[in-house]
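LOG
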Amino acid sequence: MQLLAVASECFPLVKTGGLADVVGALPAALAGQGIGVTTLIPGYPAVLAALGGAEEARAWPDLFGGPARLLRGRAAGLDLLALEAPHLFDRPGNPYLGPEGRDWPDNPIRFAALGVAAAMAAERFDLVHAHDWQAGLVGAYLRLNLRRATPLVFTIHNLAFQGQYPAELFSRLGLPPEAFSIEGLEYFGEVGFLKAGLWYADRITTVSPTYAAEIRTAEGGMGLDGLLRSRAAVVSGILNGLDTAEWNPATDRHLAAPFSAGDPAPRAANTAALRTRFGLAEGAVGPLCLFVGRLAWQKGIDLVLDALPALLAEDGQLAILGTGDRALEARCRAAAAEHPGQVGTVIGFDEALARLGYGGADAVLVPSRFEPCGLAQLCALRYGAPPVVARVGGLADTVIDANEAALSAGVATGVEFAPPVAEALAAALRRLAVLHRDAVGWERMRRNALAADVSWARSAGRYAALFRELVRG
């Protein structure tokens, strides 16, 4: 079976978040299931540079205002199709944001072009797998313009990002008039890219079973719960995984000292290096906690700051790494200034430092208000840092809470709390400190975390079964 994956980013070529990690890791995971994957992504400068001597697969004299080519090649171990369209994608930096940190005004046209290219390329494949709103129009162009029935799976990585634009955009998309209706792109009087992806897909997946249930409720559906309930028969949740060869504490060059589940002792050198990098004092007896990710309301960094007194009262420490909302960045800097040696803040995206953090922290805080799957807690488990997580979405599906039953059975891998509010997080941090003081019990939980299966093996099998069912059908 040959599958065309369509996405706006793909690790290691271009990455702003977990979407890229998933798109980059799935091809190798599916290869073990006998499924060949070619990934179609925009021809950003870094992508074209990596492709080198690619061959032309298709050309357009005018694709939304300029010439474009579809290039076929191989880079970073991936079979790729890259949409070379300089007027749309030849821009430095973040693939979605301009120099002032705002969305490029022509983002809907840029990703409509991606949809056109994917629909045209689909004729060579058995199945199309489209990811998130940027690939939301693939089905519309495939079904309405080309009249093709190629099976289409659409995966939601985060329902909060919907690609919603004014109705005036529709006339520029080249779709038939009937597409702008409730049975199509129309979404509260505007054009909805994610809505279109959900409408035209044969199957809808999201990245954890719990999140698949949450988005069909009024509380979690963000305006799309009615559509998702109406299509409940084709909605499912398949957990994300990690590329465990890439994320491997035994071989990770970013660590001060590699370690493994069989020999975790060298991990202490990473803890010392982490304290140095964040300006944290030696000798604290409480847990050294790490927050790494977007500084945003969704991710709950404000809850961490509000609950900070509970951690510091236990002689704990906090390292914060991330970038995002300016007001939250300022709060993080202020916390570090107010509590020198106890709180350290680095504003920015630094994957090497993040990996050192996973390999050196006692615990990783993931207090998201909602979380489709989350990769931070998977990385934390892989690197032996029991995560403290809100009981939502994929966090609930991947962490075994250290309650009395789990501790008695010897299977706990972290701490869960609910609801996602500061008071509940503070209680979880106090519980974490109690667990941390029990050296034998803590080491058992750390070893459980290191032994947790966070690979793609099981989930790749579920994707493969879904794909085969569609192709047979």
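LOG (cont.) second protein
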Amino acid sequence: MSDLPPSKLRLFKPPFWSTGMDCFGPFCVRTGRRTEKRWGILFKCQTTRCLHLDLLTSLDVDSFLMALRRFISRRGQPYEILCDQGSNFRGAVRELKEAFQSLTNELQVKLENQQIKFKFNPPQAPHFGGSWEREIRSVKTALRVVLGSQTVSEEVLRTVLTEVEGVLNSKPLGYTSSNVTDLDPITPNLLLMGRRDSSLPQVIYANTELLGRRSWRHSQVLADQFWTSFIRHYLPGQQLRQKWNRENPNLNDSAVVLVIDSQLPRASWPIGRVVRLLPGQDGCVRVAEIAIKGKTYVRPVAKLIKLPQIDE
């Protein structure tokens, strides 16, 4: 495993200067007599671990760009955004570049330094965004337990997501002492707002309110259930795990490899040849370009199996 990337070491920078981003869902919401789907989007600061959750009406480019504008208006403009190869993310970058090129030359010169840098992870490499993928897993697991098969209104779902954001941003970033005289630990909320937890006093309602008509009480019961599930599923997983602690030799140019692809039908074994290595800053190769049947693909080394060389 390599050293920490520069995005996690943005010292003396505001929160969300380097941001990881991904979508999750879908969730069913009730709109009148119809049932529609909504998706969540998560922005995570790579340095301070602050989170920002929002709701998407679809997974198209327009919905993502509006969510990005809401995020920038509330949290400030990030310097860089790290994400996967989603079609909505790719399309948004293309849309922003076209909008920038349509400006006059004077505006382009003035706004050149204010462009957001999008850094895309290699295809089929979710472990490259493990810091925010782990948060998404925690949110999805807890919400799946809380919501289950019930359908709530969009306003209730948005309220629950916002309260979930407050719960995740209130977790301590370091060791929590059992001595009441010790200082309170630093939390993402403290870095965001400059003060301790500013949430409203908790209101506890019985689970029977899930069947009531009061949306406010319904959202509070869901938030309490999320907290219970969050403690049960997330906190026990915060143990140090030993992974990728042994150095392996890098791939060689023109090496023959077997590509692991879970989306292919069974009994399909794509075999290709390494045409270019993409080493990291420490010299270790974690991404490579593979040529398969005349086409070139970028794949992480974790999804490649080097085949033994046959002596001619």
